[in-house]
Amino acid sequence: MSIKKIGVLTSGGDAPGMNAAVRAVVRSAIAMGLQVKGIMRGYNGLIDGDIIDLDIRSVSDIIHRGGTILYTARSPEFKTEEGLQKAVETCRKEEIGGIVVIGGDGSYRGARDLSLRGVPCIGLPGTIDNDISSTEYTIGFDTAMNTAMEMVDRLRDTTQSHERCSVVEVMGRHAGYLALQTGIAVGATSILVPEVPYDLQRDIIDKITETQKTGKKHFIIVVAEGVGEIHQEVFKIAGAIEEKTGIESRATILGHVQRGGSPTVRDRVMASEMGDAAVQLLAKGIGNRVISYRANTIVNDDIYEALAMKKEFDYDMYKMAHRISI
Length: 326
Ligand code: ADP
Ligand code: F6P
Hints:
Layout lengths: L4 E6 L7 H14 L3 E5 L3 H6 L2 E4 L26 H14 L3 E6 L1 H12 L4 E5 L15 H21 L3 E6 L6 H9 L4 E3 L7 H14 L5 E6 L8 H13 L3 E5 L11 H19 L5 E6 L2 E6 H6 L6 H9 L3
The chain binds adenosine-5'-diphosphate and 6-O-phosphono-beta-D-fructofuranose.
The site of 6-O-phosphono-beta-D-fructofuranose has 9 residues, from loops.
């Protein structure tokens, strides 16, 4: 089946580099003689018919911008059969023959449902959490890690001056990839991730007191938000450290600053390559697939297979971080 017009949308939590991906999709499609429509606010735009024309210049000056010019949303209605049917009807009316969906695995499930109903979709991994099983890398991860690292570097200055302990919450409600690599990059004394249960005494208090004996005077503990009670655990941990060690402690939640900012080289290039790869498939009428990055190569997978894959947490890296944080 040959496709003449495609759509592109961003869905779920935004991630730096989504704009670069939209730009690549638009430019690549137009270069291949396709027309492109921008679908606003994720799947909501399909339900409401909120759709714009995208030409070559409409994506000028966005490669360096965080967020998404198409806006993003979570759409509960799209998960219902009625919502899906409205979306299919919009595609028919707008003569949209295929869609590039940029988002996380929730968005992939939506892309699967649309493909099943005759609108071929290609998923692109866009989330700062790097928690999509089929791919070793998701657009936005590098920028978010660098942002978190810079923020913790700033915290380190004041933590060092006051000889305190800073307990920092980074994003990652279900995954510790961001916390792990940020924690390594800032030289954290302990890194807590949802994948590994922690023991306050063994993993934090004992580590602090042991490193104190060799002259360490300030401490950084990095905690993924998926550890314990969200937005509360860092305060509990800081209180417990103060009580058990006498070291003055402060809790900081980095929050949504981690989702913003200008994308790094890695995110811009990855987004460009992935966006282009998605269009190459759609142009051939191929849908129901996702773009993935494995072993330094851009590949593509069947959506069902991608969603069924399991991603192992990098326990070796986690153990290494523990070894060198003495
Ligand atoms: P992400 O794509 O970042 O994982 P969400 O999980 O919030 O973010 O999913 C984004 C949107 O994708 C949802 O608002 C919904 O419209 C759609 N979606 C999520 N899960 C499903 C599902 N199981 N079936 C169909 N659509 C889904
Ligand atoms: O983008 C993924 C993520 O950052 C998670 O780590 C976090 O739990 C979630 O989004 C929070 O998103 P929101 O505040 O937009 O619901």
